[in-house]
Write a structure and sequence with these properties.
heterodimer, A: alpha+beta, Alpha-Beta Plaits, four-stranded mixed β-sheet, about 15% helix, globular, B: alpha+beta, Immunoglobulin-like, Formate dehydrogenase/DMSO reductase fold, five-stranded mixed β-sheet, elongated
Amino acid sequence: MVRYGMAIDLSRCMGCRACVEACKVENNTPKGIFWMWVFRYEEGTYPDAKVRYMPRLCMHCDSAPCTKVCPVGARFTRDDGAVVTDVERCIGCRYCEVACPYGVNYFNWKKPSENQYYDWGRTGLPYRNPDHEIKYDGRMVSGGDHFVGVMGKCTFCVHRVAKGLKPACAANCPVNVFTFGDLDDPDSEVSKVIGEKEHFRLQAELGTEPKVYYLGAPLDPRKPRKPLDLVREEVDL
Amino acid sequence: MRRARALLILAFLAPIIVAIAPSIDAYQNGAGSGMQQYDCGSSCHVTLGTTVVVVSAPSLSVDKGGGVTVTVEVSGGNSGPILGVMLVSLLEPVPESIPTAAGWTITADPSGSGTDNYYEMTSYSGSATLQWSLTAPQTDGIFTLYARVHHGGGGEPQYANGVTGLTFTVGTGGGPGAPVVEIISPSDGAIVEGVIDVNATVQSTVPIAYVTLQIDGVVVGNSTSEPFGWEVDTAEYANGEHTLNVTAYDTNGSFGYDEITVNVDNLVVSKAIPAWVLMTAGGIAVVLGAIAAVHFLRKTRKEAGAREVVLDPTETELLAPLLHTSPKGYLFLAISLLGVIFFFAIWYYQMANGLVVTGMRDYGTPLMGSPWGIYIVNFIWFVGIAHGGIVMSAAIRVMKLEKYRPIARMAELLTVVTLLLAGLSIVMDMGRPDRLFKMVIYYGDRVTTSPLVWDLTVIMIYITLSVAYLYLLMREDLAYLRDKLPKFRMLYGLLLFGYREDEKAKIEQIAWWIALTLLVIVFLLSGGVIPWLFGLIAAQAGWFGAIQGPMYLNAALASALAAVIVMVGTTRRVFRWEKHISVDIFRGMGTALSVLVILYLWFTLHEQLTYQYSAPSSEHDISDSLLFGQYALLFWPVVAMLLGSFVYLAASALAKRFSYVGTLAASSVVLFAFWVKRFLIVIPSLTHPRLELYPSGIYFPTWVEYSLVLGTVAIAVFLIAVFVKLFPVMEVKGARRTAGEGADTKEA
């Protein structure tokens, strides 16, 4: 059985957000919704300060708190380890979002009518991708169809993985920050880089068992971190 | 002379013959090249105009090397008798467009004797049908054939394409190593009816990505893992032949398929019964039922009619709301009904536009909002009142607090109404309220882990117990009043279904057990399940921990007590029940409330101190935002309101001075303070994400949210008012029985 996971090499990331854009285009996400996001932040205090970047997608936790709290089982873990939302079952209570310590859930507050960057001169979603319109393992889990009133989040690009492709963020990174693969296979690329390099997982102390590993030194709790961009003003749904 | 004439004619004819001659060459130039560009002089062909070219073949799937007959129909356009038609595999006029270059073999052309891809007619008269026979390429794949008509002249490539080609699928898929698909059932050509199972096997050396089922070219099923089977309801298709195609795609992008034809033969049944028939039938049934009910009730009334209708003065006072409604009363009902209508109008607006009309947004980047808002605040506030209310009533019964008996039914009523509104608050908060039933469908799966499902369970348990409790204990009064209040005889008669004179002892017994159950489970439910909605969530700083349970139970009891004081105090004044609800009751409840309020402040002190002392920074931040930050302007007023109410209530208890209005006011303040306190539990944690890389968020409820929350209060007021107007909210028989008995003491 495969158990997909990802390693993110923080020493390589240069904060270009190509992964953010790739995710938005591949999954057709409307305005204000970022299944993939790159934190750009300042760490430490002057003069010992550095600007750092950290891509953030769904951690696809092995012990995902969001799947536990879901009252209808719309949020579930696939056999391949991806944590996804069944958009045909979700009732929109947003308990998964509340229970998630990573802030990766994005609710469809309204009918998608605008896109984040380009509008192609039309309302609604920019294009149709038939891969999003079919069920995977009998459940409607792929992104792209953004129904009003239901939850959405990173799917590990279930529709691409089904074809043997990498998730869009991993495929489009210009500096190979992401390594995607089977964590249960000791010979897979992702298992190897995790075995070779120093790594940590975000908020692993909560017992969520994330399947996304960050390569690099863990965040030093003694250092203050300040986000560089405040975007709420720009994004008004 | 004759010879001269013949020579003259010949001389005239010669250029014409010379002009016609090259057209015979055109045949040669077109053949075998796949190109239309050849020179036939200047007048071999005439203007093409609007020629229509249609290609067709009996089947579009062929085996490798299998034979195909392609029919080309040409019509219109050509203004002369000479027309060249060409079969090609590419639309570009290049040498490779000859079908043989793509692997086809032409076995016969329209001339019947050659194997060329080009055929020229010299007697075209507006339409023609031509046939080529070919054998398919020896490789799997997709191959397309087009036909085009040619018009040469002046050295220009002039031709018209039949742009719509024929796409042949040769072999069983896309190349070597492609998946091999076989449809096991149904069999090819089978006659099918009803729901059929379509099953297929897929053999592949490469992992299969997904397998689709197409019916008449439309994808109806998709599967990514074995077994590859689908249920198809043939009733959705017209009787007759349909093609089933199962195509498997492997992870390399190769595919293979199997296609069969089935003959659907369903018994054609008449259409469903039209809606108007059902509605009419339903209407008739309702009318008949009503007539029967009225008849039945009239009969029972006749039997009871002989008795004399007498209300003694006490009863007249207790039944004041049932006997008489003042114009002010009607105005009050109308205003609260307007509130209810307003609520549903705003709710409709919210459902039509999505939750975007609220101030709630996703927490974290980029929206930096709070995913839950005042709907959830409202939910826990109402649930608290509900739980506390029924517990008060149960305590009065189990502990035999006879002094408080007159308010028991009002506490029960408050419970039922607020429970309904607690449920409504959750539904208001949902993005898809139409899918509420899914919580029932998947109940068994989810009850093990989801606190929200536990909440649903608790609301259900409480609504069942409290409605049963309220109803069972009211039956005695209903039976007593059925004959005394002719206005309500019919309503009470219906509710007294199955009433027996001797049921009282049994009902008392049941009610006692229900009361005991309520008293026991309240610690687990009010002091457990509801706060666990927050207390178990480690993701949000400030929620996780054991203190939520006791604090919540405390808050539930305090807000319920305050709500009962406000409700009983109001009705007591409106209906002049001063004689029946003694001031002592308020004094006792006020003292109890003061104890609960100071207890809550004590809990709050513990909570904030632990956060401030040496907690993880995320908890510390929450506490800072409450005590000194953006929520201080709400937090300190709440503390002041609670402390002020405590001081007032405790002082009046100690000084043995009592002010009716003062107690009511203090209770209202407590009720409001607890609503705001609930806001301070839900919102600060959600706007201060535990992951420090997110900036802290903001949440301001919009007018829609405020309107809906006020609307729920209006619904509560309306439901209570209607109930009070229809049913004896004061125990009539109980009051007669206990009149004159000494008052017990009430414990806090």
